[in-house]
Amino acid sequence: xxxxxxWAQHPTKRLLEHDMFDSLRRWGASLTTEQPPVSxxxxxxxxxxxxxxxxxxxxxxxxxxxxxxxxxxxVAESAGRLIGVASVDLRRPVxxxxxxxxxxxxxxxxxxxxVPWLWGLPPNDRRYYPLYTACVELGIPFCTQVGHTGPLxxxxxxxxxxxxxxVALEFPExxxxxxxxxxxxxxxxxxLATKYPNVYIDTSAYTVRRYPLELLTYLxxxxxxxxxxxxxxxxxxxxxxxRHLDDLGLDEEVRELFLAGNARRVFDLGRPDRxxxxx
Length: 279
Hints:
single chain; alpha/beta; three-stranded parallel β-sheet; globular
């Protein structure tokens, strides 16, 4: 069965050295400060049975930690195993929109990801709004983080309600993928995914054994087309994230949708004319 990881990154040295990861190292995350080769990321995917991974650029107020061009180069080196996700500088709205268009139309990126806690700006801040319009025009999802933050930053920006609720109301055409489950506001995140046709949840930053009961109930029931698998690699390796998957008791349809089908549909991965543009 195909497995698609919708939230990962192939890190640069700049990203790994950032102090935001200090707390994760204290909790036992096996993060070095040396940039790994692309082959190491692909090997980690192989060990976990992951066929494709969406890797993101990282732009923040401290500068570019992983550029869109670097992501494009990693994708080109991966022989079709990695798919690029763009990021931009929120402080420069016009430049950000132009960069997003370039990342999608020239580099072949398949989504935009912005991590709110990194900027200290919730998703309903006015600086996001030109990007939401651009995402709709380009036909790509907007990916973001919900829930508390592992790094020692405020978790306020990760509240699904009211912040993501406002965005979904004001941009009904926008596809939103909320990563990291939303804990401790998981029920709020499920409510939004239920309420809005174009809002989805991904399980990145959590291993299978740590999925909240509410999410499992939703995944097995009326949310079977709304939840996607993610790792947050290299913070969590695919093999670790998927260990004990069989213990969840997913039926064949739910398992396929969760591991690949929903991602293929939401990120439009089934169209060969858009796959791996720029390689």
